[in-house]
């Protein structure tokens, strides 16, 4: 049986890509290839940009209430198709059904936020900035915007971008991850069904050639990117050099500090979810636990038990495990090699996921929950983003040392503390160098109404994704000063 080949959606038409080269789309649960994704060329990217540019004038002038109505219908359609889309996420990504629902729910909240666009776009006014002169601000769309997304949240990350970008009055070119194109296609199909005019949303598959065309094309005004740090840097540097606005979220290494006074039962529960949820493939995964003083002895025995109790298996069927596979065999092998390197440099493996066998799906890309103790700052395992179900443990004597270690990371996405001390929590939130802080919250990822505030090597740009910052990103302000002279008809009402 021949495999389905993903199609582009350009100017209101589904169509094949310009070249026949493709990459495989796997079902990570079984290791099977389930579809192929076009590699794409500049011809596809240019056609998508041209379609978006042609649709811009009419969409820009569509009243914001009418634009919002498209997203009210879109919201309804996503709810109606919730099970179907989450099943696709499980199939092409390997998330469990619960995780896939979380992925789509977080995305749906961004659609709901975009439904408020008439209010979000309102400007300010001030009468009499000088005698007889009034002043107002207007927020106007930019033109053609681009969204380039990673594999790990097939629904949420695209929904971070295009609903708000389009609701602001822009037209859009969406380049999804070639590893999870099926969810992207389903999301675009529903947007068409919601009544979006032709050309406002365009979907183009591909890799570097497509991305570089989008980054350098003079018609493109703004680029939203989420992915790994090296690619985020490339996107930001190339896009800004070509005069575009860029917001580029990168990778992460998030620290969770556990104080000896923490509620250990709740901490174990939260830490296991933060480290092993979504098989560790989250930019907000808690990948390093820093235990302070006696916290290690209180925490680790139960944490090891919790890790070993996690059932790993296929997620593409009714009976669900606690954790699914990682995205590809190559990614699984990279995770294993980072754990090997830590071990050879002296770290101790307390729970070992490298040897995991899943008998009902032997060819799936599985890696079990892993805990590595005595990790040192200089190790590659400590510095690099592993992006798998691996929790490093670093032991420290006091909070100061824990904060200093956290702040040495090149990344700055999230950090959390588990404690019952208000003073320790205050010290931590004040001094820690990361954009999203959790206090007794293991994954402090922000929701649609708040910006997703990565710092340092976790974000390149000025205005973040989500919330009011994203509305600013997708619009530019105009300030109008108005004075009316009283000559001629201006005096009529006095008579
Ligand atoms: P990736 O960087 O490999 O790919 C992201 C996107 O960039 C994909 O669409 C891909 O096709 C494209 N791409 C890849 N290499 C490219 C290149 N050389 N030139 C141009 N385009 C290229 O990321 P991934 O593996 O799909 O996703 C995982 C990464 O995303 C992790 O590092 C994770 O931390 C990060 N992430 C960050 C956030 C955040 O908000 N900070 C959220 C989710 C994921």
TrEMBL record:
InterPro entries: Ald_DH/histidinol_DH, Ald_DH_C, Ald_DH_CS_CYS, Ald_DH_N, Aldehyde_DH_dom, MeMal-semiAld_DH
Domain of life: Bacteria
GO biological process: L-valine catabolic process; thymine catabolic process
Lineage: Bacteria, Pseudomonadati, Verrucomicrobiota, Opitutia, Opitutales
A Pfam family that the UniProt record links to this protein: Aldedh
Record-annotated Aldehyde dehydrogenase domain positions: 14-480
Entries under NCBIfam families matching the protein: MMSDH (TIGR01722)
Name of the featured protein: methylmalonate-semialdehyde dehydrogenase (CoA acylating)
The protein's enzyme class: oxidoreductase
Entry EC number(s): 1.2.1.27
Keywords, sorted A to Z: NAD, Oxidoreductase
